[in-house]
Amino acid sequence: MEKRKKGYIRNDKAPSYDKQEIIFGTRAIIEAIRAGKEIEKLLIQKGLKNELISELVSIASSHKIPFTKVPIEKLNRITRKNHQGAICFLSAITYASLDNIINACFEKGKSPFIILLDRITDVRNLGAIARSAECAGVDALVVPDKGNAQITSDAMKTSAGALNFLPVCREHNLKSTIQYLKDSGVHVLACTEKTDQLIYASDLNQPVAILLGSEENGISPEYLKLASACAKIPLHGNIASLNVSVAAGIAIFETVRQRGQII
């Protein structure tokens, strides 16, 4: 069903995009960014060069909005309207500043409790992790601006509304984010099977960020090397892996257990 406002459309006929609201047209997207709209993702036609596209790329870069160059066919599959080579997806939430959250925690005398996600592409897992995190009093969920599931209405539904309350930070470079957390005194614990250390023997009663990776490939090797420590959840069955949202729930509530009444 289309909205009457020019340049806006509710994408009900493309289920792969989860009925997200999109904005199409170069000038309409530029004005949306200037108006402070939260942009989840921006697609720009590959090879297209004109003054407005250059202006769009410039303003998107200055606002740290992730954009991808794609073939025109991909844009045409999203909408048949005159998109002028540019389509953006509006975010279902307003992203928070990780720096502000860390500083606010320390100012309140509270140990920060952060969850970092590396390439969690299933929107249902993202929503389930957010639900556990919010219930546990996690201070923020950190996601990369590319390679992760988008925060859509489906993610909001799976999170049972938790994403309305849990601050989410979108970071361009997860490597520099991990280093920033460590420099800020936050212990970054990578939850991985590539270690002998059990999570139950890890010290989580301190400023901590738990890093979780994709079910297919786990945590990126460069992030594993950069983490303060690694820990695994012991498994005794024939299947040597857990769903990432289940693993997240175990790690999150082990932190709650160790912290007792601190959270």
What does this structure look like?
- Keywords: Methyltransferase, Transferase.
- This is 23S rRNA (Guanosine(2251)-2'-O)-methyltransferase RlmB.
- By secondary structure, the protein is of the alpha/beta class.
- The chain folds into two domains: 8-90, Ribosomal protein L30/S12 (60s Ribosomal Protein L30, Chain: A); 98-259, Alpha/beta knot, CATH 3.40.1280.10.
- The chain is 34% helix and 20% strand.
- The chain has nine helices and eleven strands.
- It has helices at residues 26-34, 51-62, 72-78, 98-107, 123-136, 153-158, 174-183, 221-226, 244-259; strands at residues 8-10, 21-24, 39-45, 67-70, 86-90, 113-118, 140-144, 168-171, 187-191, 208-213, 229-231.
- The strands form two sheets. Strands 8-7-6-10-9-11 form a six-stranded parallel β-sheet, sandwiched between helices. A five-stranded mixed β-sheet has the order 1-2-5-3-4.
- α6 (153-158) links the parallel β7 (140-144) and β8.
- α1 packs parallel to α2 and α5 (123-136) packs parallel to α9 (244-259).
- The radius of gyration is 20 Å and the shape is elongated.
- The termini are far apart.
- The model is unreliable at 1-19 (pLDDT under 50).
Q: What is the overall silhouette?
A: elongated
- Indicate the proportion of strand residues: 15-25%
Average pLDDT score: 89
| Main β-sheet description | 6 strands, parallel
Distance between the termini: 44 Å
Task: Provide the number of structural domains.
Answer: 2
Q: Write the element-wise H/E pattern from the N-terminal end onward.
A: EEHEHEHEHEHEHEHEEHEH
- Low-confidence blocks of residues: 1-19
Please identify the top-level CATH class of the largest domain.
Alpha Beta
What order do the strands of the largest sheet run in, or round the barrel if closed? 8-7-6-10-9-11
Q: What name does CATH use for the topology of the largest domain?
A: Alpha/beta knot
Radius of gyration: 20 Å
CATH superfamily of the largest domain: SPOUT methyltransferase, trefoil knot domain
Coarse structural class: alpha/beta
- Which CATH-level-2 architecture of the largest domain? 3-Layer(aba) Sandwich
Count the helices. How many? 9
Q: What is the percent of helical residues? A: 25-40%
Number of strands: 11
